[in-house]
Amino acid sequence: MLKSTSKFSIFQGIKKYRIRRVLFIALFWTGIDFITTILNLNTPENHTKSILTRATLVFLMSGVMGYLFVYTLRNVFKNRPLLVNFFAKTFILLFAALAMNFLAHLSNNLFVEKLSLGKSLADFYQYTTSQNWLLKRTLYWLVIFAITQLYLEINDKYAPGVFLDILAGKYITPRNENRIIMFIDLKDSTPIAEKLGHQNNFLFIREFIYDLSLALIEHNGIIYQYVGDEIVVSWKYNKENMKNCLASIITGRKNIQKRSEHYRRVYNIIPEFRIGIHLGDVTVGEIGVIKKDLAMSGDTMNTTARIRSACNELNQKFIVSKDFVEKSSLKSFQIEDLGIVELKGKASGIELFALKI
Which of 30, 195, 227, 314 is the most exposed place for a label (fewest CB within 10 A)? Predict the structure, then answer.
């Protein structure tokens, strides 16, 4: 995975899903700190300015810490064992949390209470050394970090956007939902595997899937599963997600184009992909005992897989169903009618269109 080429702005090139995650963390941490601050006030009068000042500083610094949590530390420790990952990030964030409390306390004393710098530092020292403050705050931060890690891990496990659904047990009982389904796989995967060998082919597929996954997540796709070089992704059906689905294809292609020189230099191959898209009702629910997962089933899933397979037979890269075309905003010059196509396992043919985007 390549790092951003820019060294001047930490936000350059950051994906929208990361911004949402960082914002969630900043709001969550600020909200918890706000509640604990209110509960710990001995005298509620004349504290409004202090509370607002602290909340503002905590939100800004929580945003920085959230960015560390979601992006920087994630990349630094991505190839480390889970135990090392957890303790290293927790250790770093504990120091960051201490710095956040120091700045919040100091700013309040300097700008709200109008104390001198010396008195402000002395007050912070007295505040932190009294009543086991450090031990209590450390336990408090560990709980906050654990909840944050849970949020991130569930999103990584079930794909972004389903944390609250899983937490609420939405899919314990299977639900029927109208979804846009997309199947993606690597074009010419067999000859590529023969050329690269097992290990290099695995690394190649991992980078290919990473580049496409960023595009899918950026456009609110819910990644259902990875199977070899295949990605299955869905969107809940609405007009906005119809656009997101199409935009993810363009972004995915751009992601690969931006890294084409890397692919050429390392593998001497620039990956291409095939896509099948359909929409309709699917059944979604939790499945499994030892290893639980979210499963989707139904004729829509099977039909989409067959549409993707038809890309080879029809010599097309991107194929969509008539159902998708009728509900999309695609223009006539963006599609080519392929006629009624017989799909394996289907009793009757289905009208398909090639995407020209």
Answer: 227
